[in-house]
Amino acid sequence: MNRSGSPRPPAARINPSVLNCDFMRIGEELDRIADADRAHIDVMDGHFVPNISFGASMVEQMARRSPVPLDAHLMIEDADREALAYAEAGAESVTFHLEAAAAPVRLARELRRAGVQVGVALRPATPVEPLLDILGEFDMVLVMTVEPGFGGQSFLPEMLPKVRRTRAAISAANLQLSVQVDGGINRESIELAAEAGADVFVAGSAIYRADDAAAEIRRLRELADAHLDLCGGAAHA
Ligand code: DX5
Ligand code: ZN
């Protein structure tokens, strides 16, 4: 609620990815994004994606140190067995990949019982349609806008129709899920993703390569807010 007592209009959220920051100085790197909504934490196991980043014990330390809550993005092969550890590590939201979960409904329910918000992520070649009957199990759909695995890649505009279909399905079902985009988000692509129906934006290199990370977060948030369309593609029909 704002000061006049009326509900705030929907707002874009900016979650910087710490994947390419200086891990020897992770505390200070987290302080640089104190104005963000959440810190996006990319967990990579060297199987689901070629890279290895860090595991639950590191996430637990970051959760204690971070000025903002953590948004854990699990790029791990065995989500059914391992996702819960990230809820217990103190992340505020935990997102697993649909491709990596044998029982996504059961896993989503376990995570909700553990008290976290639950996201489900889709690689570029995975359609959203298999999720449509189970959308109510999740708080967020993450539409990957690059192939997961590395920071600093170029945004795939081919993913915009999937963002639109996801937002339209959420609206049609009268649900309140967020749509997150991750990969290659910068001042140009954020406008396109917001127009398509995304409302949570992960940006790694755009924020951590900026001289003033706080100013870049503000700029990205303004651009996204100006283009936000949560009406399920009504403007595009
Ligand atoms: C890619 C990761 C992203 C990545 C974003 O697999 O999920 O979160 O770090 O970095 P940029 O914004 O540089 O594409
Ligand atoms: Zn990510």
Short summary of the structure?
The protein is an alpha/beta fold and 237 residues long.
What can you tell me about this protein's structure?
With 237 residues, the protein is an alpha/beta fold. The protein has a single domain, classed as Alpha-Beta Barrel (TIM Barrel). The protein is built from eight helices and eight strands, in the order βαβαβαβαββαβαβαα. The protein has an eight-stranded parallel β-sheet. Strand 6, helix 5 and strand 7 form a beta-alpha-beta unit. The longest helix is centred in the C-terminal third of the chain and has 15 residues. The two termini are 32 Å apart. The structure holds D-xylitol-5-phosphate and zinc ion. D-xylitol-5-phosphate (DX5) binds next to strand 2, strand 8 and helix 7.
